Amino acid sequence: MAHSNNSVITGKLSGTLGRELVFRDWEGKTVVAKAPKARSGAPGPDQLQRQEKFLLASRYAKAVKDGTDQGIKDAYTAALRPRQNLFSRALEDYMSPPVVKSVNSGAYTGVVGSTITVRAVDDFRVTGVQVEIQAANGTLLEKGNAVQQVNGVDWTYTATQANNPLTGSKIKAIATDVPGNEGTLEITL
Q: Cβ distance 154 to 103 under 8 Å?
């Protein structure tokens, strides 16, 4: 991809040149790129799913950009990467779900008040983590929200129900980000 600082030769070109080159303006510079080729064949199910997700992501980003919530606009603006604007940052956040990196059950003994620590990250912000505990027979014992720790990536859940025996129990952590995407991780004790 070539760049021009609006020289005498390229001026302020925009548009296409003979179905081979595309000229556009980006942050005061003329960008020259190879023209895209027409697609052949019908899109497959995976491509249709990606197109649907991208459509929803662009609607979310437009709602953020055009919306009245100045707080979220400022937060996304503060997290801009090079060559990004508010719209593209919000779009990227929608397309990237949070990731639950680990579920630490070392302090969980099955006793009321014992804790589980979940580490969850996102490209922008994790807004909440929910923890579900299933008994060894598959019965849901409890579920609730974890509390974010000072470091910003760890969340602690405190058990409210007794769980005995622990062997075969499952702990599932579900992290949510600003657009509502979810990331999960389940461990078996």
A: no
Element (H, E) at 184: strand 182-188
Q: Which two tokens stand for residue 89?
A: 């940052």
Rounded Cα gap, residues 9 and 171, in angstroms: 64
Q: Please list the helix, strand and coil fractions of the chain in percent, rounded to the nearest 5, in that order.
A: 20, 35, 40
Distance from the first to the final alpha carbon of the chain: 52
> Using an 8 Å Cβ cutoff, are 133 and 169 in contact?
yes
Radius of gyration of the chain (CA): 24
pLDDT digits (tens), the chain, 189 positions = 455 555 666 566 677 777 788 887 777 777 788 888 887 888 889 999 999 999 999 999 999 999 999 999 999 999 998 889 999 999 999 999 999 999 999 999 999 999 999 999 999 999 999 999 999 898 999 999 999 999 999 999 999 999 988 899 999 999 999 999 999 999 999
